[in-house]
Amino acid sequence: MFHLHHWFTAVILAVTLDAVSGFWILTQGQLVTERLDPIVSPGKVSSHVHTFVGSNGVSSQPESSYSGSCTTAGVTADMSNYWAPQLYSYKGGKFDSVPLSFVNTYYLNRPGATSEIKAFPKGLKMLAGNAMATSQNPDPQLASAISFMCLDYTNGSEQYGLMPNRSCPQGLRLQVTFPSCWDGVNLDSADHKSHMSYPIGPHPDNGNCPSTHPIKTMTLFYEFVYDTSKIDNTGGSSLILANGDMVGYTLHADFLSGWDTNVLQAAVDQCTSDLYNNLEACPPFKPYIDRSGASSCTTSPKVDEQVLGSLNYLPGCNAPLNGPLKGLPANPSCSGSSTTSTSSTTTSTTKSSGPTSTTSSTSKPTQTNPSKIVTVTVTVTSTVTFTPSPTPANISNKKKIKRIPVRRSA
Ligand SMILES: *[C@@H]1O[C@H](CO)[C@@H](O)[C@H](O)[C@H]1NC(C)=O
Ligand SMILES: *[C@@H]1O[C@H](CO)[C@@H](O)[C@H](O)[C@H]1NC(C)=O
Ligand SMILES: *[C@@H]1O[C@H](CO)[C@@H](O)[C@H](O)[C@H]1NC(C)=O
Hints:
With 410 residues, this protein is mostly beta strands. The chain has helices spanning 140-143, 261-270, 291-295; strands at 23-28, 32-34, 50-54, 81-85, 87-91, 94-97, 100-108, 117-118, 125-129, 146-151, 158-160, 171-177, 181-182, 196-197, 215-217, 219-226, 239-241, 252-256, 274-276, 310-311.
């Protein structure tokens, strides 16, 4: 359990566009970290560990998110879930979970030249980035949808397309921009991507929608900020994503919309200034703001295995895929079946093939330093060595989610 003691009030984006009509930020503390992915692996244990924020109804079944009793989002009309891979660091033969400082989920109002912005329909599922990538995306627009911001107030913060091979004393931000053009029909698709598209043009976060995906939504941009103050990643020798990627090709994130669409649509229409996280300045949010409920919102993990603290192996069947640790084994007694659940993540991101946008505006997250990093302490209840069961971990598909028994050895 953790408490977010101070609200983060930093400015991250330089908003310089005519086409931009404001944004708000939901600053969220960690909700739960476990091997789940209700979009890619519904009803199952997922292949690697994710850190979740949002509705405490989150489970392996997407529908349960909507009936949570609280949310870390700060607005109770938002029962969405937001997730990204957990970050680990390797030292002295152990994989240590890197503490999550906080998450910023940006809602960017970028209508493009022609379209008005529609609220995310309830149940919309989105995936950005490619968890199975083995190289940087050759398409510059898709490559720039993921990035890594190394926060270093002494020597200068810098943004990278891949994991920074250096120390980031004020934190490492994993950044993901989501597609913002919807086909208007499907809440999901077989690859979880093709019902959505990035806008036309070079920027993942701005531009007009292609005719195949004509409905413009808010542009979601995530920052998962990890506390790397004690980690030296010189030579890329320590930081590793939960799926075993040390280089950073596979950074990805997910969104499951659980918004009250009327509230979200009213906010989209009325709250078009730069609100940062001053949600109180957005009248449609006012009846739903609950910051203390957000800081105390918790849930217990549904998958019964240790994924935080000091581990002998990455949870699941994940060996280091690349970088200096390539060659180290996965847990020899890992549960093999769970890896099959990633098969649907391999397809490439839908990209508009429409004509080049005439929009000349550019917008990128800038390297402006946050004024303050709020450190959230994730309490690790035990440092017991994790030895997973030789049988696959499993999740009950029954309405009431049972904890998944995974044997631990002391
Ligand atoms: C900044 O760079 C200098 C020279 O490379 C190095 O000695 C110092 O440790 C760095 N400071 C931080 C905070 O990383
Ligand atoms: C870090 O090093 C890896 C090689 O291990 C390299 O592929 C990658 O480009 C480097 N990352 C950056 C941001 O330069
Ligand atoms: C998971 O549980 C379901 C329902 O209890 C069962 O049918 C299935 O065989 C189990 N899968 C594994 C891999 O244990």
